[in-house]
Amino acid sequence: MKELQDKEQILMAYYTQYYTAATTEDVAALDERLSQGIGKDRYEEAMNELKEEGLINGLALVKEEEGEGPPLPMATNEGMLYINNTLNLQSDAVEDHQLDYLDNNLKTSGLELTLEPVKTYIEETVRQQKEM
User: Fold this and answer.
1) More confident of the two residues 74 and 50
2) How are beta strands 2-3 and 111-112 bridged, if at all?
3) 118, β-bridge pairs
4) Cβ-based neighbour number of residue 19 at 10 Å
């Protein structure tokens, strides 16, 4: 199995959250959950790399934009495309089923999620979406 880098796994969590119609509070809650579960320093290092690469918006920017239209997602358009490319997901797939595609691809791709908080969050979110 190919192990994904920390930053790729974290980006995947925010990619997953994008398809849940998350509020700014939801984004902040995931940020806190991942920071605590992964470890503040390790999480911040990965987030800084993602911000520098333009793959993610920082929480400060998300909060700054709050109230000015729909909530700003953490993953940028480039970040969403990065995950689509990494997992060979069709970016034009129907949004309602994007998490199904993500789930199926993770099961068949040989990619391993090693950050337990990310793995748990993605599994919970996919399960909740299937129940809706």
Assistant:
1) 50
2) parallel
3) none
4) 19
Q: Is 58 left (phi over 0), alpha (psi -120 to 50) or beta?
A: beta
Confidence of residue 69 (pLDDT cuts 50, 70, 90): low
pTM, two decimal places: 0.85
Tokens found for residue 6: 């920390």
Q: How far apart are CA 52 and CA 32, in angstroms?
A: 20
User: Who's near 58: CB < 8 A, 6+ residues apart?
Assistant: 47, 51
Q: Which two tokens stand for residue 96?
A: 């309602």
Closest CA to 54 of 18, 29, 80, 16: 80
SS (H, E, C) the chain: CEECCHHHHHHHHHHHHHCCCCCHHHHHHHHHHHHHHHCHHHHHHHHHHHHHCCCECCHHHHHHHCCCCCCCCCECHHHHHHHHHHCCCCCCCCHHHHHHHHHHHHHHCCEECCCHHHHHHHHHHHHHHHHC
Residue-wise pLDDT for 114-123, tens only, equals 999 999 999 9
